[in-house]
């Protein structure tokens, strides 16, 4: 069995060829699917794949994060109104599986935060936070059951957003891979 990564020639798996073929067959995976599974397991070591979405199911996503979530509870005007509790991940650990055409976005003030929500049911299952425009804020209550072990909640004083983010030691780095 040979794997062909993008932009390069075939890779000779040597003595692992039979093992690779048996793995693919046992799990009914294409070569690309098997490679993705192994790369995900290596790159996201210590993380679990959570899946989730909106209420009506039009929007679905997967996100690689810890089973023990660190969730922010912000008291800014929009987070208070929406009860927006979220954890932050790098964009590389988030994948929209379906529903891009069913999302709409609301912005205000600096227009940095992109508050996305389902056009059908109105649920915001994720958004692009102002503090981490290169990542995603994920609503833990929109994750499917079975992958979250614990949730630790930290209050953030969003009413004084600039000061809170400036004084917080890690929030701006949470979207870094």
Automatic annotation (TrEMBL):
This is CENPV protein. Keywords: Metal-binding, Zinc. The keyword Metal-binding applies. InterPro entries: CENP-V-like (IPR052355), CENP-V/GFA (IPR006913), Mss4-like_sf (IPR011057). Belongs to the Gfa family. Residues 50-162 form the CENP-V/GFA domain. Pfam families: GFA. Gene3D superfamilies: 2.170.150.70. Signal peptide: none annotated. One of its GO terms (molecular function) is carbon-sulfur lyase activity. It comes from Dasyornis broadbenti. SUPFAM superfamilies: Mss4-like.
